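[User] At your convenience, examine this fold.
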Amino acid sequence: MMSTYKPQKFAELIGCSVKTLQRWDRDGVLKANRTSMGRRYYTHDQYLKYLGIKNKGQGKVVVYARVSSYGQKPELHNQKEALRKYCHQHEIVVDEWLEGIASGLNYKRQKFSKLFEEIELGQVSHLIIAHKDRLVRFDFSLIESFCVRHGTNLIIINGEELSPEQELVQDILSIIQVFSARLYGLRSYKKLIKDACLKP
């Protein structure tokens, strides 16, 4: 299944304006595709062609699923089943299934790191996830751009029900704890400086 982009997103990817895309479309420089409703869109192949990269269809298809804790294993199972159903319906042959039990704030996950090393090496043609926060909690746009630049089609089935709400609460609490610790450390540091200055 080929990734597609709306004009604004495609313009951001290749570093031009939407007006430039419209002009190129009229002049036949870079023709836009159109939906049945006449809306313009661009494909991942067009992006690769613009960059001068040939899409040979090489690389493996990877499905990635994640939950934050072992207590969410039933949700991990549901997530994987939804992904299997999606792949079956779209006749996608999966080469590798990856799953992780770790916070979406943790960018040092072993399988996650290995996956992105393979993407960087051009070894992954498609990456399929249930929801964007199954990959990372924040900075998803950076991850998406990384995949696009390295020729990986990122497919999100947008299963909102596959994104456990309690995880967001846990992640927010983790962020609060980190900043609270830093604030406490800063106050302690200021106190040490003040005490040192008051010493005769």
